[in-house]
From TrEMBL, chain A:
Limits of the AD domain: 83-176
PROSITE patterns given in the database record: AD
Species assigned in the record: Linum tenue
Name of the featured protein: AD domain-containing protein
Source superkingdom: Eukaryota
From TrEMBL, chain B:
SMART domains: LsmAD
InterPro entries: ATXN2-like (IPR045117), LsmAD_domain (IPR009604), SM_dom_ATX (IPR025852)
GO molecular function: mRNA binding
Gene Ontology biological-process entries: stress granule assembly
Biased composition (Low complexity): 481-503
Record's compositionally biased regions (Basic and acidic residues): 19-33
Name listed for the protein in its UniProt record: LsmAD domain-containing protein
Domain LsmAD, first and last residues per copy: 209-280
Top-level taxonomic group: Eukaryota
Cellular component, GO, one term: cytoplasmic stress granule
Residue ranges, annotated region (Disordered): 1-50, 306-327, 404-430, 461-534
PANTHER family reported for this sequence: ATAXIN 2-RELATED (PTHR12854), ATAXIN-2 HOMOLOG (PTHR12854:SF7)
Length: 182, 621
């Protein structure tokens, strides 16, 4: 079985094959086979036609392939000679990404709806805002609590309050014109 | 073994060996975070290339944002920390967020955000798919990525303005002024001459604050003698100016200024057209060398027009200057000349030269243009000149007239001196009359006269260093008494002082005697400012013999002789310069004031203190 399966695997998932795949999760995409690992049943596909150094990669377990169709045969998308790994740079990249992610995490409210998050993001562009549980605190003075309507703007000096109200209205309007939902 | 693997990773040239070590390194990482033992033997023995690829690609994901789809439909996003593709695709994410909750049935809008998990371990059994975008799979991708990220760290302006979070609510377009928007409104009024403006700042000040002003415009400029030849000179000046401005030029900025149309499809954005930074020319500030001379020559040609080659590049400059002078006084080709505008033609010549070059070469070789002739000294001077903004239009006007006259007299003089070193002719033209007079006074022969001119030039140039305080009058005075002072600007001021009625010369000063044992000054290329007193270095003596003159070709014609100038120029400071004064109608009587003011500029180079020069010089005897 292994012998035949290995040969079958080579046949089925030869490197460079273009496949159109539907997954059990509802995904549909086209990709080019970069490699297939029998022991783990992991199929690595490259999406898109770009042949640059950066590719969109998918690691798919073949168990979750609902169906696939063969589109064609192409060359090996991976040039072995150019494949090197610099662990240091990878780790540096990771650190950088983590720092960025932590900064981003500050902006994300916990337990708030996506709409609220959208409002927060909009305010974040022009005003110093932070989350306090589910309330948005602007300039450490003005609080905007759920459901983040102009009426919910509380606190701060009248001037600051008005300003926040105004910005909130504008942002809400803008969010609506752009279309409900991201 | 781990470090060994790392080293192996880096140094191994064998792709296959590398992948193997990568796999092992991958294992190493996983070991850090997973308690389970990995069966390394098995992986080491498995030589399947497909497995190698898998491991390679999954290792490429480290540090990259990935999306993990679980078999239950949930999706997590985070930064890939490590993977284990031994059996299933196990992955550990850092700062992971659930972007899609399979169990949540509510509407998207109400989806509740959750805090990101610092570390999220996803067992391989749960993983259905891992998606990563823009993964660098080759070396090229990796290096670029880091660079880009570093740039993002720095947050350059363009990345801020072209925000990634661009929500294009509106189409951005560059601003264009309204139809009826007056071009630079009000500016015309500002630049009206003071006689038109109807506002006298001094009067106002006096009225408001009772401040009595001691401002005398003529302190800062040459008094224009409205002689009978005024009209002639003006005409001549305008003619020359027109000539120069109408010249064709390769330089973008010059062309812009002169209004030469660059053509419809000129390839260059605003920066190329208007910036003073010259990019991509490979210019190097490290020191003076032949290349710079060549470049400077090229610049000179650009500014002054080609001249038939003569012996030596340096003399070329001078000859060029000469030919320009013969064309007529070279009055500022660009009106906004630095305040170094000196009445002397030569100096003017080089002033504009300098300035043009300064402008053209901006940061690169601001001083080198004129420095080609005078190594080492000019950068300092020129930079100063360049840095100063004060431009006295009146000076220029007066200068023009003066120069016109001078050039004319110079021409005859030049003809005489045609045989002498080009240098002499170069900047000294303007000083012709003074030279002539000095010639009469001094026993020196013709070459000497020329020499004096040079000094005058240098003094003119050094005046540059004292922007705003230099008057062309003093320049001429300087020319005359070029021989009288060791330092350039001091010399000019000194001359001025000597020539003026209220001389502040120290009557008790010891006469300067040339010290034959004085150390010859050789400018060091690295820095124009030399810690030892410039006085000692620049001991100048008035040399009667011609031989020294050729050596002076290093001196820029227009660039004032600073103390750092080549040592073989020695000017004998002769305090008894009274006879030199008289025939100079254009010498500014307020010369002596310059002495003090000049000191403020660059005390380093110009150690001129009225009356002290001779004393200090004599100390070297």
């Amino acid at each position: 079985m292994e012998g035949s399966s290995s040969s079958r695997s080579d046949e089925d998932f030869a490197v460079g094959c273009m496949l159109s795949i539907k997954t059990t999760l509802g995904d549909e995409f086209d990709g080019q086979v970069v490699t297939f690992d029998r022991p783990s049943n992991i199929l690595v596909l490259q999406e898109g036609l770009k042949l640059g150094p950066r590719r969109n990669i998918r690691f798919l377990k073949t168990n979750y392939i609902k169906e696939f169709s063969f589109l064609g045969q192409s060359e090996d998308p991976l040039d072995i000679k150019k494949c090197y790994i610099d662990l240091q740079s990878l780790q540096a990249r990771e650190e950088l990404a983590l720092r960025q992610a932590e900064a981003d995490a500050e902006r994300i409210g916990v337990g708030v709806t996506t709409q609220a998050q959208g409002i927060f993001d909009a305010l974040f562009k022009t005003l110093p805002v932070r989350w306090d549980k589910t309330s948005i605190v602007v300039m450490n003075e003005v609080r905007v609590s759920s459901p983040y309507l102009p009426e919910n703007v509380i606190g701060g000096t009248p001037a600051a309050n008005d300003r926040v109200k105004k910005v909130l209205e504008l942002e809400r309007r803008r969010l609506q014109t752009r279309g409900p939902g991201p | 073994m781990n470090t060994q693997q790392t080293a192996q990773l880096k140094s191994s040239a064998n792709g296959f060996a590398r992948r193997r070590s990568e796999r092992e390194s991958g294992m190493r990482l996983e070991n850090k975070h997973q308690s389970g033992k990995l069966n390394q033997n098995r992986s080491m023995n498995a030589k399947s290339p497909s497995r190698d690829r898998l491991v390679y690609l999954s290792t490429c994901l480290i540090g990259h944002p990935v999306e993990v789809r679980l078999k239950n439909g949930s999706i997590y996003s985070g930064t890939c920390h490590t993977t284990n593709v031994e059996q299933e695709f196990a992955i550990i994410l850092k700062m992971a967020r659930m972007t899609k909750d399979a169990s949540y049935r509510g509407s998207k809008q109400e989806y509740v955000m959750k805090a990101p998990s610092k570390t999220l371990i996803i067992p391989g059994k749960e993983v259905a798919e891992v998606i990563a975008k823009d993964v660098p799979v080759t070396v090229a991708g990796q290096s670029n990525e880091l660079q880009n990220e570093r740039h993002e760290d720095i947050l350059i302006d363009s990345s801020i303005s072209h925000s990634r979070h661009v929500e294009l609510d509106r189409e951005l377009s560059p601003w264009v002024p309204d139809e009826d928007d007056p071009q630079c409104p009000g500016l015309e009024n500002i630049f009206d001459g003071p006689w038109n403006r109807g506002w006298d700042q001094f009067e106002t000040n006096k009225m408001l604050f009772g401040v009595k002003s001691t401002f005398d415009e003529e302190l800062y400029t040459t008094r224009l003698e409205k002689g009978p030849r005024m009209r002639e000179l003006e005409r001549e000046a305008t003619r020359i100016a027109r000539e120069i401005e109408g010249e064709d030029t390769e330089d973008l900025h010059l062309a812009e200024e002169r209004g030469i149309n660059l053509g419809e499809d000129f390839d260059g954005d605003e920066e190329v057209r208007f910036s003073s930074v010259i990019r991509g020319r490979g210019l190097d500030d490290s020191g003076y060398d032949e290349d710079e001379d060549i470049l400077l020559d090229k610049r000179n040609t650009e500014t002054f027009g080609d001249v038939p080659a003569s012996s030596g590049a340096k003399t070329d400059h001078l000859h060029r200057g000469t030919s320009n002078d013969s064309a007529g006084a070279l009055l500022t080709s660009s009106v906004d000349e630095p305040q170094c505008s000196q009445s002397s033609n030569g100096s003017e010549f080089f002033q504009s030269n300098t300035y043009d070059h300064c402008r053209q070469q901006a940061d690169d070789l601001p001083c080198k243009s004129s420095t080609s002739d005078c190594n080492g000294r000019n950068p300092e001077i020129l930079r100063v000149a360049q840095g100063h903004d004060s431009i006295n239009a009146s000076i220029e006007t007066k200068t023009v007239a003066v120069d016109g006259k001078l050039s004319k007299s110079n021409e005859s003089q030049s003809a005489e001196n045609s045989q002498t070193a080009g240098f002499d002719r170069g900047g000294l033209l303007a000083d012709a009359p003074s030279v002539t007079s000095s010639v009469k006074e001094m026993p020196p022969t013709e070459p000497e006269v020329v020499y004096v001119k040079a000094d005058g030039e240098s003094s003119g140039v050094s005046a540059c260093r004292q922007p705003g305080t230099f008057a062309s009058g003093s320049d001429h005075a300087g020319a005359t008494s070029a021989s009288s002072h060791p330092a350039v600007s001091p010399s000019s001021s000194l001359i001025g002082s000597s020539s003026s009625e209220n001389s502040t010369l120290n009557p008790h000063a010891k006469e300067f005697k040339f010290n034959p044992n004085a150390k010859s000054f050789t400018p060091s290329h690295s820095s124009p400012v030399r810690p030892p007193s410039p006085v000692s270095d620049g001991s100048y003596y008035f040399t009667p013999n011609v031989t020294t003159l050729p050596q002076m070709h290093g001196m820029p014609v227009g660039i004032g002789m600073g103390p750092s100038y080549s040592g073989h120029q020695h000017v004998l400071f002769n305090p008894q310069v009274a006879p030199l004064r008289s025939p100079q109608p254009y010498f500014h009587p307020s010369g002596p004031q310059y002495g003090q003011q000049m000191n403020l500029g660059h005390p380093r180079q110009v150690l001129y203190m009225p009356g002290y020069q001779p004393v200090s010089s004599s100390q070297h005897l």
